[in-house]
Amino acid sequence: MHSGLKVSLVLKPAPADHGIQFRRTDLPGSPSICAHYNNVIDTFQATTIGAAGMAVSTVEHLMAALYGCGVDNVLVELNGPEAPIFDGSAGPYVKLIERACVVEQDGPRRYLSIREPVVVKDGDSSIIATPCDHFQVHYEIEFPHPRVGKQEYSWELKNGSFGREIAKARTFGFLKDVLRLQQMGLIRGGSLSNAVVFDENEVLNVNGFRYSDECVRHKILDFIGDLALTGVPVLGNFEVRKAGHTLHSRFLTKLMDGKDYAAHPPVVLPAAYISSGLSAIA
Ligand SMILES: [Zn+2]
Fold first, then answer.
1. How many Å lie between the centroid of ligand 1 and the Cα of residue 270?
2. Distance of CA 218 from the midpoint of ligand 1 (Å)
3. How far is ligand 1, taken at its centre, from the CA of residue 93, in Å?
4. What is the pLDDT of residues 72-110, one digit of tens each?
5. What is the rounded CA–CA span in Å between residue 11 and residue 21?
């Protein structure tokens, strides 16, 4: 999407407690990096993780697909700096993951459970997390465009609901921003085949939307992908308003309070979290 480079990506099985790691096979020594909020180095237009001279950008759609399909442990090998965009959605990732099959592994599945409200705000953008015994997101957006306007959607993770309701929603952008972003070296691979694009009044894609509220569904997709950087499945209710990768990332930092749950389990949970009776972090 942003680099315009061709890339090959392989998802390889990994043992329990491995987590999600990205390996750059095109770099000397094939360095790898943990898909973890502490490793986020950029959130402008996409989420980029990096450390020690290597980076992988636009990880959010793959991360959302893995989260939505219940994959906790996988090694992602790729030979370039950016995960492939496919059609701008997580649909192709989900299809491939389902075809490959997801297996249950030995060992408890660790969850992060919200125990008390966690809030971040920036102007009229906000994210509020509250306790809930499952994972659900209510997202609200508002764009001053006749084909978008105000949209809201409530989604709960259960029995393939990610694949049915969220995965196929494509990223979107406005024609007026294209030149500016290209001058910044971004969206070099962007086209009508991997994004919904709007001019001043209309959708430019010949076939229009996949859902009438495709934009807000895609925002949920991005939120799930960014939240997946906690490194563990999360139980909570999330009310998100007009946010983006940058606020998602700020929220994660506050939510996790600098604790590295995924890399060093078990840990002592702060007051904000409980095990909720499930296989827990602590
Ligand atoms: Zn996206």
1. 31
2. 6
3. 13
4. 999 999 999 999 999 999 999 999 999 998 999 888 888
5. 10
Among candidate residues 50, 48, 68, 66, the one with its CA nearest the CA of residue 58: 48
CATH number for the domain whose boundaries are 9-256: 3.30.1700.10
Percentage of residues of the chain with pLDDT beyond 70: 91
If you measure from the C-alpha of residue 275 to the centroid of ligand 1, how many angstroms do you get, rounded to a whole number? 30
Q: How far is the CA of 271 from the centre of ligand 1 (A)?
A: 32
Give 254's Cβ-side CA count (13 Å radius). Answer: 16
pLDDT tens-place string over residues 24-59: 999 999 999 999 998 998 888 889 999 888 999 999
Ligand 1 centre distance from Cα of residue 183 (Å): 20
The predicted pLDDT at position 206 comes to 92
The answer for residues whose C-beta is within 8 angstroms of residue 237's C-beta and 6 or more apart is: 114, 129, 130, 131, 132, 136, 137, 138
Please identify every residue annotated as catalytic. Answer: 245
Question: In the 3-class helix/strand/coil scheme, how is the chain assigned residue by residue?
Answer: CCCCCCCCEEEEECCCCCCEEEEECCCCCCCEEECCHHHEEECCCCCEEEECCEEEECCHHHHHHHHHCCCCCEEEEECCCECCCCCCCCHHHHHHHHHHCCCCCCCCCCEEEECCCEEEEECCEEEEEECCCCEEEEEEEEECCCCCEEEEEEEECCCCHHHHHHCCCCCEEEHHHHHHHHHCCCCCCCCCCCCEEECCCCECCCCCCCCCCHHHHHHHHHHHHHHHHHCCCEEEEEEEECCCHHHHHHHHHHHHCCCCCCCCCCCCCCCCECCCCCCECC
- For the chain, domain boundaries: 9-256
The model carries a pTM of 0.89
